[in-house]
Amino acid sequence: LVSAVVKLIEDQHADNTVLATLCPTGSYIDPGTKLCVACLPGTYSATPSSQANSPAVCLSCSAGTYSNKTGASAASDCLGCLPGSWSSVVGASSASVCQSCGAGSTSVVGAQGPGACVCGGGFAQFNGSCAPCEAGTWCTGGVKNLCPGYLQGKSTSPPMSSSIDACYCKAGYYNWAYKLDGCLDCPENSF
Q1: What's the distance, CA 2 to chain centroid?
Q2: pLDDT band for position 126 (50/70/90)?
Q3: Percentage of the chain surpassing pLDDT 70?
Q4: Strand pairing of 129-132 and 137-140?
Q5: Using 50, 70 and 90 to split pLDDT, how confident is the model at 10?
Q6: What percent of the chain is modeled with pLDDT above 90?
Q7: What does the alpha-carbon distance between residue 185 and residue 164 come to, in Å, rounded to a whole number?
Q8: DSSP 154
Q9: Do 95 and 79 meet the contact criterion of CB atoms below 8 Å apart?
Q10: For residues 86 and 112, is the Cβ–Cβ distance under 8 A?
Q11: Which residue, among 136, 98, 138, has the nearest Cα to 114 in the 3D structure?
């Protein structure tokens, strides 16, 4: 497998003295054998290397990413953990290192630790975890908000609402500009 990835280019003097070995991206020069060696999964090499500039190693994929590719040649070959997961492992070679944020929470692609997990819409932070918002509330950014007029029994919302737009006036109350003023009593002889 390595021989398929190994590429050896030598410039030679007339007396066959080797001037330089150039390895392509995705590999490095083994200092002992002077041969190009493909980067292992979880690592990459973005620049060609020669005996003069080779660090004799490939760079590791950063935390929150992984690569199962042999001979990776760019940091972009390291794939991010999906939203709702995270990893603190450097040089990971499999998505199996990505851990779930937990119920009701999410994260950005490539999250590097559990602190990157936040409650998703419709969930609020409660005792270190995310809990669904109850009827009469709406939750965003892990914060629970009451619908205007809820404490007076005039409004409500469906459970797990993520926007004030989900709040509405209960029967017997109305408002055209609900988000500004809450709910008003219906005039007499109306409903």
Answers
A1: 32
A2: confident
A3: 82
A4: unpaired
A5: very low
A6: 48
A7: 20
A8: S
A9: yes
A10: yes
A11: 98
Nearest to 108 by CA among 90, 89, 87, 127: 87
- The mean per-residue pLDDT over the stretch 63-73 comes to 96
Neighbours of 2 (CB within 10 A): 13
Number of helices followed by number of strands (H, E) in the chain: 2, 21
Residue appearing with tokens 């990776």: 72
pLDDT of 179 strictly over 70: no
Which two structure tokens, joined as six digits, stand for 19?
């001037």
Residue with tokens 């290397």: 49
Can you read off the two tokens belonging to residue 96? 């199996």
Side chain identity, residue 182: G
Phi, psi of 181 (to 5 degrees): -115, -5
Q: Helix, strand, coil: what percent of the chain each, to 5?
A: 10, 30, 60
Please indicate, yes or no, whether the overall pTM of this predicted structure exceeds 0.70.
no
